[in-house]
Amino acid sequence: MKTIFIILLGMFIGLTTSCSSNSTSANTGVDNSGISKTTQPSTQSAAQTDMDSTTSQNAELTGNEKEILTNTFRDFIPYNPNFVDCIVDKTLEQADIAITDLLNIIEAESDKIQEYWQTFGPNCLSSLTEEEVKLLNSPLTDASGNPLIEETEEPGRIQFSTDDIGITLKGTFVTGDSSPNYVFQASEGQLLQLELITENPNANISLYGPNPIAIDSFTVTKMLLPDNGDYLFFINNLEPNNDYTVDILITDPTVQRVQFNAGETSTTLQGGILRGESGPVYLFQASAQQLLGATIITLEENASFDIIAPSGTLLAINQMNVERLLPETGDYLMQINPIRGNVSFEIVLEITSMSSG
After folding, report:
1. For every residue of 251-263, which 3-state class applies, written as one string?
2. Residue 108 lies in domain
3. N or C: which terminus of the chain has fewer CB atoms within 10 Å of its end residue's CB?
4. Measured over all CA atoms, what is the biggest interatomic distance in the chain, rounded to whole angstroms?
5. Is 60 contained in some domain?
6. Integer distance in angstroms from the first to the last C-alpha of the chain?
7. What is the pTM for the complete model shown?
């Protein structure tokens, strides 16, 4: 999968080998023995003095390690310090790793910084300036992030018009271009609808958020956004001269959690949608290999539903009746789609285990 972070990091790792060597050399000089070393003095007062001294040394060493760790990351990531600090903090937090352990890892294998940047960099976009975000579109930069060649203007931050909640993006992928990427701002709980349209069957979208998102690459998805902040998506695997269109829609839906009565496997949902409104969203929990049955009933057959798996895969699009085995365990999303006019609907939802059938 071609992503801009891999391209950039390949350039930076090659261009900053000497910086990495210097940082590694500096790291090797850190004395970590005081972290686990203790003394056994002969008197209680001496023990207290040594304990205070050891605590002070440990705090100093931890501070030095964080500084060395951050400086080593900065050798490879040519953007502002806040961005680098964010990546370091996210790595420590999300990877659940101690400072000393992370420092030892990158001392032994500096290429691991590439993995951490690719994983956690998209979660730190708010730390970048507008100019630095534009640099993400350039596949050829020096170790300071300066373009090596003149780049044409690339897609960037999506700006919705006043009172507008959706936009259509169009472009053509040209030889030598980096993977198209777009940034947009959204809020927790909003419903994102994102679809890629292109003749290339291998092309797809990778989506990143302010925090890691458990969603697979896709061509079309709907999801309730989990965080406030900037979201970034890449279009992957485009080939030269591929035209592409991306439809993006962000709405504030009514969300309802579906609860089944004790001992029951089915429930009935009722509601209405006024002309011009988007339909409500229902969340229900199910397990892999359970059987889902869903039917929507309307007087004028003027509504349908979409069903989306926890990984973002659409299982049903504009259907009025569906029966299928569920592929995953987790929260499933169902949105009601009005087709015309005002809608009154009733949904019969049933989830059964195969053993009970």
Report:
1. ECCCEEECCCCCC
2. 4-135
3. C
4. 90
5. yes
6. 42
7. 0.59
